């Protein structure tokens, strides 16, 4: 599930483009406020955005799908199911 919280006014992200994003990863918890359970990672905490090429498998599938079409300057909430995230194997406690 993808929800735009702010729609940007810049260019739209497309497959093959190098993009730079700030993110905060939360474990999904239906009982928590805004469904945000434990925070497991954040580029904002490090003070440096994460850069990758969109749509070429450098990141989890949920990111390749979830950032496609987003406009520069926007913000978006992605709810990523396990099969588009780290799956059953997990990663770093996720």
Question: Could you give a quick summary of the protein structure above?
Answer:
With about 90 residues, the chain is mostly beta strands. It contains two helices and six strands, in the order E-E-E-E-H-E-H-E.
Share of residues in strands: 25-35%
CATH class: Alpha Beta
Note the overall shape.
Answer: globular
Helix-strand string: EEEEHEHE
> What is the alpha-carbon Rg in Å?
13 Å
Cross-sheet strand order for the largest sheet: 1-6
Structural class by sheet pairing and helices: mainly beta
- The second-level CATH architecture is Roll
Overall description:
The protein is mainly β and 94 residues long. It has a single domain (2-87), classed as Chitinase A, domain 3. The protein has two helices and six strands. It has helices at 43-46, 61-67; strands at residues 2-6, 18-21, 24-28, 36-42, 50-53, 75-78. The strands form three sheets. The chain has a two-stranded antiparallel ribbon. Strands 2-5 form a two-stranded antiparallel ribbon. Strands 3-4 form a two-stranded antiparallel ribbon. The chain is globular and about 35 Å long. The protein starts with a strand and ends in a 16-residue tail after the last strand. The model has no long low-confidence stretch (mean pLDDT 93).
């Amino acid at each position: 599930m993808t929800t735009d919280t702010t729609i940007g006014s810049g260019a739209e992200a497309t497959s093959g483009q190098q993009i730079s994003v700030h993110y905060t990863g939360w474990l999904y918890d239906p009982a928590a406020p805004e469904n945000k359970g434990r925070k497991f990672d954040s580029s904002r905490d490090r003070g440096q955005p994460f850069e990758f090429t969109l749509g070429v498998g450098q990141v989890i599938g949920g990111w390749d799908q979830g950032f496609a079409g987003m406009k520069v300057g926007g913000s978006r909430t992605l709810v990523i199911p396990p099969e588009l995230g780290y799956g059953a194997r997990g990663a770093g406690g996720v």
